[in-house]
Amino acid sequence: MANVSLYVHIPFCYSKCFYCGFFSIKYSQLIVDEYITALIKEMQHFQEQSIHSVYIGGGTPSILSIKQMQRLLNAIGKFFNLNKLQEFTFEVNPDSISIDKLKLLKSFCVNRLSIGLQSINDKLLTYLGRTYNFQLFLKIYEAARKEAFNNINIDLIYGFPKHIMNDWIQTLSTVLSLNSEHLSLYPMSIEMNTVFYKKHFNIDNKLQRKMYDIAVKMLNYNKYVHYEISSWEKRNNKSIHNVSYWNNCEYIGIGAGACGYINHIRYKNIDNVPKYISLIKTNNINVKIEHEKINKATHILESILLGLRLLENGVNIKFFKLYKQHYLALKKCLNNKTLINNAGKIKLNPKYIFVSNQILKEFV
To answer: What are the start and end residues of each CATH 3.80.30.20 domain in the chain?
Structure first.
């Protein structure tokens, strides 16, 4: 298995953001200690697997204590072959990371940070359920630079209820002045069972589109390359890990709620932390609640759907010619100019990137 990635899910937060639909629970040192122990036992099932990228996500991975981080990072180095490792990303939030934690991450060869900012407006951060302010973010960002982290992603959210264009432009202008290597911009969606969902909040799609358009112009002016639907990079700092997803490569998912795709099998682990820990304790490494064999037809379809997210490379036209329905859908999209054929590479027309989900539905 070449170019296999590793994702480790840390499903703990101090509190749940009001828009967040990801699987997470409240932090408790005792249950996290038990969870790390369970993670380590699950890792042993994949012992000696060569890994080319690692992503520690959540939840809030930086919520782990120094000791918990050490245990986790030691285990990754012990049970996986990292000789060909190209990228090691760790997600952090400003209110749960410290200089000592940054130093520890650096000592374990973590070479990329993904920092959740979302907005520079403190009132909007509170409105979103974030538990820090912009000044704390700046302090952490500067500390990371001093610790020689030279590949930093910043997450931003736009088009949420109460968000106005002036706030968005100010956030973009300020963040662009930081000159980070990578930016991830996500339009707000109202997910089920979130605070925003329960309050029946709605999204202004027209405003979101305008915010997207102004972001494209501002980032392009500042020499950021729009290489994936929600991702921009500069100085050749694409997310190696995420590009592997879009290229439909294999990846191992470790932890409660984590997903994986190995040996043509897609799986999802149980999204219940106590049950996950209990199963692992009884030496039942099989904590999967979903297990699907991916056949050729499904693999081709997913390669098309995922690959079209990559705006520079696109998808080789040969993938569309393997099945008649895909080729017919391609012809329709080429005729209406939502997709373009660039020397045999099929790509999203830049004019239609924001509505890409509607275009991808043509192939399903």
So the answer is: 5-246
Summarised one tens digit per residue, pLDDT across range 247-285 is: 999 999 999 999 999 999 999 999 999 999 999 988 766
The neighbouring-strand residues paired with 87 are 53
Cα dihedral angle (225, 229, 230, 233), rounded to 10 degrees? Answer: -20
In tens, the pLDDT along 318-334 reads 999 999 999 999 999 99
CA atoms of 6 and 89, how far apart (whole Å): 10
Task: Report which residue type is found at 43.
Answer: M
Cβ of 167: how many Cβ atoms within 10 Å? 17
Are 294 and 261 a contacting pair, CB within 8 Å?
A: yes
What digits encode the pLDDT tens for the residues 223-251?
Answer: 999 999 999 999 999 999 999 999 999 99
Give 208's strand partners. Answer: none
CATH topology of domain 5-246: pyruvate-formate lyase- activating enzyme (3.80.30)
d(CA 252, CA 260): 5
Cβ-contact 35, 287 below 8 angstroms: no
